[in-house]
Structures are given as structure tokens and as C-alpha cells.
Design a protein that fits this description.
Length: about 300
């Protein structure tokens, strides 16, 4: 097993997680009104400021609203394409100024030369961590991602067992006698990956991944909230031996909380802050309950 890469990111994450007593990662997934019926950016922002500035204003205000309750904010690149490089810089800068780490959820999945260019732009934008797919393989594929983490100290998180129902169609297939997600976890462990993405909608697989990777690697676990993942089961299955290094992701239920609350659009940031606080309090409670059961405290 290699030493876990992304040492600077790990140190900062553990410090912020301890200071805030938080294991919550807020996902920033802005969607313009009109793209779908629910979970959209308030219409008044786009009408008042235009699409680009309206989306950016939404992102910046949500960041400031949720920052007290999370050590890390994950920005889904597919949702922020309109912002461009300068807009991404502003978002990453605001995340940093608000006292959080920033992850660009870009899911790198190409050959090495392309991944190198993408990583250069990630650095230019100022993000602290990225996600990547193991699909290209190591040599001439994601080897450059591991090297980037080693050289920069930034975090790299490999897609392992995703949170959507159809993930099992591929990720539970057997390869060399192992289910694919287990093979991904085993190889990532040997190469020193900072963290793995494993949905909290799959507690059985979450437990298996933790057993494979040991205590030091982080597990980023999306699926709490709209997707229905159980955080209690996630902590029981995915925390390490001292109950740490599991990061539970919630996005839509927080950033679009104004819809669920039935509040005026103008109160979107206030609603996001309130829901992030509520989610964190829930996580603290269920983590303590899960650990008491797991470790018989």
C-alpha cells in the first residue's frame, strides 16, 4: 500500500472537520429555471442579473450561507459550465475565503495528455481537489492524476460505487474474481488515492470499501437527501475505526431548501443555511448513535 496522496488537502480537511465538528459536504449544483420543474435557481436571480451573473450570484451566496456547517464544498462542473474559468475562480475564491475546501467534481475520464490539461485548468481555477474515473486505466490514463496529487498535495477522489440505482449494472460485475468496485478500491488503495466516492445508498458496498482501503483514506458518500441514503447506515458502514474519514454529501436538499420550505425565492440563502445546519445536527446525532452501536461505546 502506498502512502495516501494529497497530504496538504488531508491535513486541511481534518483540521476543518475537527474545528467545525462537521462531516458534511455541501454539493453546489446550480440549475437554471426552465431546465426542470423542481430544484432550480430562483427565477428572480436570472431575470434580475442575467443567466451568467444570476447563476454566479446564487453560487456565491449559497457558499457564504453554508460555510459555517461544512469543511468542504463540492462544485459539479456540469452545472457550472456557463461560468467559465473566471466564474469558477470566483467561486473557488469565495469557498476559500469562507473557510472551506473546494472540490471540482469533474470526473476526469480521458487519456493522460487530456487529463493533464484538465488538471492544469483545475489549478488555474484554484480548486483543492478533483474527482476522477478509473475507466481509462492507470498507464497513460489516470497515472497523471496520481502524480498531480503527489506533486501538489491536492486531493484526488476516484469514482468507486456511485449512488444511482443503475450503478450496480456495471460496478457489481466481477473482474478477476472481484466485483468491479472492490477491484477499483483495491487498486486505488495500492496507489495512494486520497479518497473514494461511494454512495451512502449502498451501505453493504460502503462497508466493503472501508475494509479494503483501511483507516486513512477518505470516503466521499453522496446520496443523502433527495436520493434517500441513510446517514446512520453510512456512518456504521463507512467510518474508520475511530469514527472519522467519512464525508456525507448533500446537495439539492440544501441549496434548494427554499422550495421545500415554501419560502419566497429571495430567502434562498437563508433557507440553505438553515437546512445545512439542520443536516449537520442530524449527522452529528446519527453518527454518535451509529458509532455507539458499532463500537459498543
Amino acid at each position: 500500500m502506498s502512502q495516501v496522496l494529497g497530504g496538504e488537502f488531508l491535513r486541511r480537511y481534518r483540521r476543518l472537520s475537527s474545528e467545525k465538528d462537521s462531516y458534511l459536504c455541501v454539493g453546489l449544483d446550480p440549475v437554471p429555471p426552465g431546465f426542470r420543474d423542481r430544484y432550480v435557481v430562483p427565477r428572480f436571480l436570472v431575470e434580475s442579473f442575467g443567466l451568467l451573473d444570476g447563476l454566479k450570484k446564487f453560487c456565491l451566496e449559497v457558499v457564504r450561507a453554508v460555510a459555517p456547517y461544512t469543511p468542504m464544498i463540492k462544485v459539479n462542473v456540469q452545472h457550472v459550465l456557463p461560468l467559465g474559468l473566471e466564474g469558477l475562480r470566483e467561486v473557488a475564491s469565495e469557498i476559500r475565503a469562507s473557510g472551506c475546501l473546494s472540490m471540482l467534481d469533474v470526473k476526469l475520464s480521458d487519456i493522460a495528455s487530456t487529463n493533464e490539461v484538465a488538471l492544469r485548468w483545475v489549478e488555474e481555477a484554484g480548486f483543492d481537489a478533483v474527482t476522477f474515473s478509473p475507466f481509462p486505466g492507470y498507464r497513460g490514463g489516470v497515472d497523471v492524476v496520481y502524480r498531480w496529487a503527489e506533486e501538489t498535495g491536492k486531493g484526488i477522489f476516484v469514482l468507486c460505487r456511485m449512488s444511482n440505482p443503475g450503478a450496480s449494472d456495471i460496478q457489481l460485475l466481477r473482474v478477476d474474481g472481484l466485483e468491479l468496485y472492490k477491484k477499483i478500491a483495491s487498486e486505488a488503495r495500492e496507489r495512494g488515492v486520497t479518497g473514494l466516492v461511494v454512495g451512502c445508498t449502498a451501505p453493504k458496498e460502503l462497508k466493503a470499501v472501508r475494509e479494503i482501503v483501511g483507516d486513512e483514506a477518505l470516503i466521499l458518500s453522496p446520496g443523502m437527501g433527495v436520493q434517500g441514503g441513510d446517514p446512520r447506515e453510512a456512518f456504521r458502514a463507512g467510518a474508520n475505526r475511530v469514527g472519522e474519514n467519512l464525508i456525507v454529501v448533500s446537495a439539492r436538499s440544501i441549496i434548494y431548501a427554499y422550495e421545500a420550505f415554501g419560502w419566497a425565492e429571495e430567502r434562498f440563502a437563508e433557507a440553505a443555511s438553515l437546512e445545512a445546519k439542520r443536516r449537520l445536527e442530524e449527522l452529528r446525532r446519527v453518527r454518535n448513535e451509529a458509532l455507539a452501536q458499532k463500537f459498543k461505546v
